[in-house]
Each structure stands twice: as C-alpha cells, then as structure tokens.
Design brief:
A hairpin with an 8-residue loop joins strand 11 and strand 12. The radius of gyration is 16 Å and the shape is globular. It is mainly beta and about 170 residues long. Strands 1-2-3-4 form a 4-stranded antiparallel β-sheet, with no helix packed on it. It has a 4-stranded antiparallel β-sheet with strand order 5-6-7-8, with no helix packed on it. A 4-stranded antiparallel β-sheet has the order 9-10-11-12, with no helix packed on it.
Length: about 170
Amino acid sequence: VPSAEPSASIASLAVPGKLNAVGQMVYTAGAYQGLHMVNAANPAAPVLAGVLTTSGTANDVAVAGDMAFIADGATGLLQANVSVPVAPTATYTVSVGASGALAVTVEADIAYVAAGASGLVAVQFYDHLTPPVIVGGFDTPGTALDAAVAGEYAYIADGDAGLMIADRFPL
C-alpha cells in the first residue's frame, strides 16, 4: 500500500477532535480549547487565522456560510459569527438537554445535534441577529453520540442501541 507524507502541519495549543473544511478554511473543535480556524490557502504553510474560546467542551463543529455551530458539551449548541476569521464572535447558545451537545451536522438552515441521553435535537438558524430555535427532535433509546443527514433521513450513532434512522420531515 503506498503511503503519503503530509505536505504541512500547524502547531497549535488545541488538540483538534473534529474538523470541518470549507473552501480554504479549516475549522477545528478542540475539547477544552474551543474553535480554531486555520487558513489552508497554501497547504504547504497553513496559518492559524483565529480562535474562539468557548465555555464548554468543544466536541464538534459544522459550518454554514459565515456561521459556525459548535457542539459545546454542557453549554449546548453555540452559534458563532466567523465572517472575520481573525475575530470570531459567539452570537447565541441553545440548550439541547442535560447531556449537552456531543456532535453537530448542518443541512440547509437546520443544525442537527446529537445530544446524548436527550437524543437528536433540530435547531433552525437564521442569521447573526436572530436567535436560533429548536424546531424538533426525538429521544432515542440509547445515547446519541453523533449524527449525519442525507436526503430525507437523519442517521444517529446511538451508543449501545446502534444506528437509528429517522425521517427528518418532520423531525
């Protein structure tokens, strides 16, 4: 099996757990270090563009336009304005249940949050001036650890209960 060597790396105080790449920007969620934004326009020399410290445990990140959504543990879902990467700002937080936000994925204007014992929570977002709103969700038999969406379905990694598949219209 052929192996590839990385073209570059960037040292950081954060230990990235999950990441999301959009265009030339790479957004990383680092458990206790928050959100880091890396400009990878030159893959041989990536540059740390900005950092947003969060009050929770940044478990995951999803990006839609100039908004980042951070699954921030017990804090919940954190919406951030990342239109200016050198100066990201937290705009809203949505509580998603006692277990907090463990993972997030975005489709259209809905953030789907894997919320542990609270199952899957759907949060509709609008812009930086309008608070996001919980528009649906359901409790799963296990512990919702991760989520993905494709077409009409949401897929939930539900711990010991296995894979759950749900129709997202309506959720």
